Amino acid sequence: MSSLMSGARMLLECLQREGVDCIFGYPGGATLTLYDALYDHPIHHVLMRHEQNACFAAQGYARSTGRVGVCCATSGPGATNLVTGLTNALMDSIPLVAITGQVISKLIGSDAFQEADTFGITRACTKHNYLIKKAEDLPAILHEAFYLAASGRPGPVLIDVPKDMFACQVHYAPVSTIRLPGYKMNIEGHAGQIRRAAEMIWQAEKPLVYAGGGIILSGASDELRELVETINAPAVLTLMGLGGLPSWHPNFVSMPGMHGSYAANMGMTHTDLLISLGVRFDDRVTGRLSAFAPHAKVIHVDIDPAEIGKNRAADLPIVGDLKHVLRSLCEALRELRPSMGELKAAARQAWNAQIAQWQQEHPLVPAVSDTEIKPQHVMKEIDRISDGRAIVASDVGQHQMWAAQFVRFHEPRLWLTSGGLGSMGFGLPAAIGAQIAHPDKLVFAVVGDGGFQMSIPELATLATYALPVKVVIVNNGYLGMVRQWQEMFYNNRICAVEIETFPDIEKLAGAYGFKGKTIESPYELAAALEEAVKDPGPYVLNVRVSPYENVYPMVPSGGALYEMVFGPPEPAAVPATK
Amino acid sequence: MLQVISLLVENKPGALMRIAGFLTARGYNIESLTVARTLDPSLSRMTIVVDVDPSLREQVIKQMNKPVNVLQASDLTDTRSVVREMVLMKVRAPLEKRTAVLKEAEIFGARVIDSSLDGFALEATGDPEKLDEFIDIMRSYGEFEIARSGIVAMPLKTKKLRLAPPVPAGLNNMHITQGKAK
Lengths: 578, 182
Prior knowledge:
CATH topology of the largest domain in chain B: Alpha-Beta Plaits
CATH class of the largest domain in chain A: Alpha Beta
CATH class of the largest domain in chain B: Alpha Beta
CATH superfamily of the largest domain in chain A: TPP-binding domain
Largest sheet of chain A: 6 strands, parallel
Distance between the termini of chain B: 48 Å
Order of helices and strands of chain B: EHEEHEEHEEHEEE
Strand order of the largest sheet of chain A: 3-2-4-5-7-6
Shape of chain A: globular
Number of strands of chain A: 20
CATH architecture of the largest domain in chain B: 2-Layer Sandwich
Structural class of chain B: alpha+beta
Number of helices of chain B: 4
Radius of gyration of chain B: 22 Å
Helix content of chain A: 25-40%
Number of strands of chain B: 10
CATH topology of the largest domain in chain A: Rossmann fold
Oligomer: heterodimer
Largest interface: A-B, 59 and 40 residues
Shape of chain B: elongated
Structural class of chain A: alpha/beta
Number of helices of chain A: 23
Strand content of chain B: 35-45%
Distance between the termini of chain A: 99 Å
Number of domains of chain A: 3
Strand content of chain A: 15-25%
CATH superfamily of the largest domain in chain B: ACT domain
Largest sheet of chain B: 5 strands, antiparallel
Number of domains of chain B: 2
Radius of gyration of chain A: 25 Å
């Protein structure tokens, strides 16, 4: 069965075969033929206002659904504008397929108008990339791209398509098989290793589950919960893993790391068995690596063998997909329970009590004031309204950490954040992607005043598609996280972080045709948020928060996790007079 | 410390760029890199020498196994393997030194591939350290130019090649190999 059609049409057919219902993009000269084919094609195209935001929106879509996000840009500047988004997806292992136009094949290498070496430029920011040389190759490559993006350790895959490949007429025969002989994957995990892991777990006195983004990517949150309940051990979730275990779960401690809780970081420091699941021992989690989890043996489960032993040596490595490995691990644990389950029961009870005590000693409590709005208070209110169920897309900076500390997530795929790359400007476009995928869900874009101004153009996208995203700007008039570091580590020399100039949000939102409001009093906060949520359309709530609030606890860069700072330094004590 | 890696790679556009990029992105210095087709023209054999701390050797191999086009990456540093390099050199040899130069060449098993009034062009093959010695000696004869090929290596014991089986196309928008999202 084969039929004659244009390369562009063929590409759309293949996208449809992959179940793609919507793509995020921005057209241009090199993709004209593709857009011409989209004109009467059922695939929905969401026109963003910048290619970078198209890439972020596709990731919001991908993260909130678990499906592959698709974005599209033209050659040259369109393609180079994708680079930040692709790097972001690579760092956070987000399944993404990017399609870029390229100048016509004959002109490649001639420095043609809007030509860039996209294939070369994106080598370092994709899991894999392709340059189409023959239109006949398009179907096989497109299906390969989806397979690579979604399977194993997910990631972004880019296909660069010269303009003539979109235009030429070729016989399309659906591809039935993908052949990637070098793309090997371990899914199940080594049975012997899993059994040994189960033995180690029952023998541990102070086990700690350290779970990350891999849990979400693998769809293994039920299995994680089963593990945690089977062994009744405390669990910390990284920034990327939030929602992997319901926030209400009694075994859930909180996020560890630079802005993690005291209990989580003390847990990391004192555990004798770190059960590491889909994590990569990021420097923001471990603090000074040589002082990280100094007493712990490490079980490390990851689908990417290169992650194991990269930063911290694993005593017991398991390469496999978490959903499968955790199922087998729980089974092995249950089998061994009669003989081993009670071995360390007393010690483990004491360990759980210890964790609870640490939680009581320094709980994460949101600061609240009756004269000004504390940013933590904003998060607490968002949390109250969300009740663990809303999608929250964050930007990057102080507000991101406060959101991670105080907003609860009872399910995976609700918390969308730029973890690895930390790209400002991620929040609003990611929220757009999530709202497109979940038209009936409450979606917050929680952003700082810095990141918001990087993504302001996308207010037009909100208006165009009438997306009821609730944009909450945590506005302190500063690039707060940078200022916090200047205060703490650069002698308080505050440089280039004041961004007091900010648009009148009511007028700005009004100019786009929807509602916006600025509030300053803590007594307005709850009502204003409720009003925003009740409004059927997009809404921008500009919350003027106390300008000098900083994120605590904090492990200073290069410090060990137990060297946490809980607040600003006390004013120097007056020296006693003689 | 030098690590010798042998890679079996699909002959696909960008494969070389990707592999070199994976190494440089992790901060590993490439000392030499050779690449040519195998008996199967769709595959290439690459020999890469990198300068890394011995503790990172395993990580380097894992990184080298990651590019989609790499079928197999093996560390030849400590395995039984043959390692050879070729050097071409131009030696300036006035009449009174010609015999001495030829004698040295003979000792190291080098072949004369060109001879002129100015001197010789020589070709030598051997293990890299031996070539270093040869080069040092020939240098002492005066004006000198060389081109080295970089190392070509082969393990003496063949490692079984594990390949990924074909998978059906067109169903991958959901994680088919992994747990579904919902």
